[in-house]
Amino acid sequence: MRSPLRLAACAAALSSVLPAHAALVENLTTSVVAMALGNAVTADPPGIDSVHFNPAGLARLQGDSTQHSAFGASIRARASFRQPDGFDIGGWKDDPVNGTSTGPMRQTMYVPGYGMPGWRLPGVIVPSLGFAWNNPGSPWTFATNSYMAQAISIDRTTDPNDPGRFDGRQIQLQRLVYASPSFGYKYSETLRFGAAVPIAHSAFVVDTHMRFPNELLGIFGKLQSGWCPEDGGNIIDTFGFGLCGGGKEGMVNPFKKAAAMRLEMTAPVDPTLNLGVLWEPRPWFALGAVYQGGSKTRYTGHYTFDTEPMLRNFVKGLNSSLFGPVAGAVLGMPTSIPATQHGNMSASIPFPAHLQVGLKFKPLRYVQLNVDASYARWSDWNQLTFEFDQSIKLLEVARLYGIPDATRLKIPRGYKSVLNMGYGLQLFPFDGMALRFGYEPRKTSVPYNKIDLIAPLPDTRLLSAGLSWRINKKFELNVTGTYMQGRFNAPAEASDNMNSSKFLNIIYNPYAGQDVSGDIKVRYVGLSLIERF
Fold first, then answer.
1. Which of 24, 114, 162, 183 has its CA 20 to 30 A from that of 449?
2. Is 1 helix (H, G, I), strand (E, B) or coil?
3. Distance separating alpha carbons of residues 170 and 111, to the nearest angstrom
4. Can you say whether the dihedral through the CA atoms of 296, 297, 302, 304 is positive or negative?
5. Where are the alpha helices (DSSP H) in 187-337?
């Protein structure tokens, strides 16, 4: 086909693609080359990184090679809070977080076999290493690679009074592939197949302070302030329901810190399956597809619940009165709450299956265009259930809100599966040099009414640039820089996971009734050195 016809075909394909959608946290720190091209590489798999993006691409490698990579990434997520006119939570009209904003943010990394280190950095650096083996003339290529398949790191512990601490002081979600036995098979000059078995170490950490700005708690607090003397003593109350029996520390305030929760879990060995196909009927045109199998990852780990004196003393006072124990039994309240509860826990948290297809056009010798479409099953994250080895007394307080089993904590997520588009452009000004540009308009998998500070991921736009330099026949250097940004605005009552004041939405809406707005920015730099033997 002559060049003008190739250009026309390319333009038609680009104009007919579906509207851009996106995913959550996949492919952000996986490949230096792929990031430079907006992760649109399924039809032009990038060397050893084909293990993840399309194992069939391994069959294009000739000879043995190694790949050394390093990634540096920083995440900044901010949020501001403002209470609208008419703000009222059970008679309480002044929330201390009103007019405040979240503060400094840092990153960390879960170290397999060690845990969460104490250091906090402006960003994280992740090294990786890959190998590929191919005997000259053989249709088979074998490989393995290590890489970060999924990652998000949020740390707000620098400022102890950061208002964001009530919706995730520290969030760490990462899936580190440490081995991935793979192969690519060259079926013919135009058709290749491949498969990989990524074996990952997954970590899930949530550390957050908790408060419960809820109508019922607000009403209890107002009843206490009108009924109880300042010193907390009331002889009549002793023969009643014990609202004052907890003393000054047992006075309920829906805006005060009620507890702190830390969940730390891992899945040390979690294999999945990648299957890929690559069809290259012409040097200037190719189609590729990859299926990355999901997993119902089973995590195990530890939990700690620290409960503040407010709820502990309130329950103690309730059970030290005449009729309080009767009311508590009817409402399912615990007889006491310890200051700290800790133990073992488990959870099944899906790693979503992922399908990606792509095409490559090279209408001119010096220009190449890539377009990819991907779909990940984030709808599997409808609700996350954490199972504890004992009844959590703090959760027993929530039986009033329809939570019957205090050995389980169910956190609604309500995420959705969407289609994501990626676009890549390569320019080849001269032999041995490639300039790369990528664009990914990532429409979030977090619905507008489910966004929160644990997953502050609105619609984002990812822009990338990079270059490849073939130093000589043996070495090739790749460098990439990426910037991703998105903003959200959630008026009061907009999100059932953050600022709803509905009576039964106590788990979990720490900013009930507040207008919340914010943004997220991700900066990324990557470098890889390929050595061929």
1. 162
2. coil
3. 15
4. negative
5. 215-227, 235-238, 309-319, 324-331
